[in-house]
Amino acid sequence: MKITKPLFIISTAVGLLVLTACEKKSEPVASLNTASAPAAISACGVAPAGDLVAERIPGANTARTEFSLYEGPVWIKDALYFSDFTMGPGFPSRIQKLDASGVMTTVIEDSGSNGLAVDAQGNLVAGVHKFKDLSRYSLAGERTPIVGEFQGQVFNSPNDITIAKDGTIYFTDPDYQREAAPGGQDKTRVYRVATDGVVSVVDDSLKNPNGISLSLDEKTLYVNGNGEQGVVRAYPIEKSIPQAGTDIVTGLAVPDGMALDCHGNLYVTEHVAKQVRVFTPAGQAIATIKVDNNITNAAFGGPQGKTLFLTGAGAVWKLDLDVTGTPY
C-alpha cells in the first residue's frame, strides 16, 4: 500500500543504484518489436509472460506474534529497505533492511511509515501515518518533515510515493491508517508537491488511491486504487502538471503498490488476490505472478537489477527475471 532502472551503476555523488539501459526517469524503450528496436530490447531484456510464481525469502519472514504488513520496498545500493507495521493502535511501524544474503535487520525503529521512495541524495522519503505527513529519513534514522497538511488540515495517511527527476513528489493519501493520529482530510486524494513545497490536488475522485508511479519518460503518472473495483488510472503530464486521468486497467482485486520494468510495463500488486498482474503501458495484461499470502508492493533490485522483490503479510518474495526495472 503506499509517490517514483537495465544495468545498475553506483552514483559516486549519492551512492544510489540507478539504471543505465532504462533508468526510471529516462526515455523508455520505444517498442517491444525486435525488428524496430533490437539493440534496445537486448539491453533491456525480455518482459515476463504467462503464469509465474515468486518464492519466499526465508530470512525475511516476520518474527512478530501479531499480524503485520511489509510495505514500500525500495532497493538502495545492495539491499532492500521496507516498512514493517502492525494493525495495533497507531499502526506501529519500523523500517527493515534485507541484505543480499537474505538477512533482515531493523535500521529505523518507530518510523511510523508505510510507502517509501528514495531521493537524489540517497535518503528515504516516507509516507508516515504516525505524523500524517511526508518525511525524509536518512539511513541512520534522522527524520526531517517535508510536508504535513493541505488547506490547513493534516493528511489522512500518506501511503505510496513517486519522485520526478526535478524533485517533484507525487503521493497517494487513502484512509487505511487514518486512525493512527487525530485529524485528516474530507476526501482521499492524489497529491503533487512542487519543488517549492506547494501542495496541489491531482485527483480527488479515486476512492483510496494507493500505488503510484511515473512512466519512464515522466510524461504519464500512473495511480491505482478504488478497492474491490480496482483500476489503474493514467494521467498525461503537460508542462509538469498532470491532466485528467483515464482508466487503462479495470477489474483489479484491491490494487496496492506498483513498479515498472525497463519497457515501461506496470507490475501491479493485487492485495487480496495474492498476485501481481503485469500490464503494458496501454493496459494489456501479459503476465501474472502468484505468491502465497496477501501482497502489498513491488520493487526491482539485486546485483543486475533483474530480481523482482514483493512485500506483503509478514513476508518478502523474489522472482528472478530477464528484465530490469525500477527500484521502487
Write up this protein.
With about 325 residues, the chain is mostly beta strands. It has a single domain (about 10-320), classed as Neuraminidase (6 Propeller). It is about 0% helix and about 45% strand. It has one helix and 30 strands. The strands form eight sheets. The protein has a five-stranded mixed β-sheet with strand order 3-27-26-25-24, with no helix packed on it. Strands 19, 20, 21, 22 and 23 form a five-stranded antiparallel β-sheet that branches. The protein has a four-stranded antiparallel β-sheet with strand order 4-30-29-28, with no helix packed on it. Strand 19 and strand 20 form a beta hairpin. The chain is globular, with a radius of gyration of 18 Å.
Q: What is the alpha-carbon Rg in Å?
A: 18 Å
* Uncertain spans: 1-41
The general outline is: globular
Distance between the termini: 12 Å
CATH-assigned homologous superfamily: TolB, C-terminal domain
Features:
328 residues; mainly beta; Neuraminidase; 5-stranded mixed sheet; disordered N terminus
What would a concise description of this structure say?
This protein is mainly beta and 328 residues long.
Write the layout of secondary structure elements.
Layout: E1 8-10, E2 17-19, H1 38-44, E3 50-53, E4 55-56, E5 68-76, E6 79-86, E7 93-99, E8 104-108, E9 113-118, E10 124-128, E11 133-137, E12 143-147, E13 149-150, E14 153-154, E15 161-163, E16 169-173, E17 189-193, E18 199-203, E19 212-214, E20 220-225, E21 230-238, E22 241-242, E23 246-252, E24 255-260, E25 266-270, E26 275-279, E27 285-290, E28 295-301, E29 307-312, E30 316-320
Parallel strand pairs: 3-27
Antiparallel strand pairs: 1-2, 4-30, 5-6, 6-7, 7-8, 9-10, 10-11, 11-12, 13-14, 15-16, 16-17, 17-18, 19-20, 20-21, 21-22, 21-23, 24-25, 25-26, 26-27, 28-29, 29-30
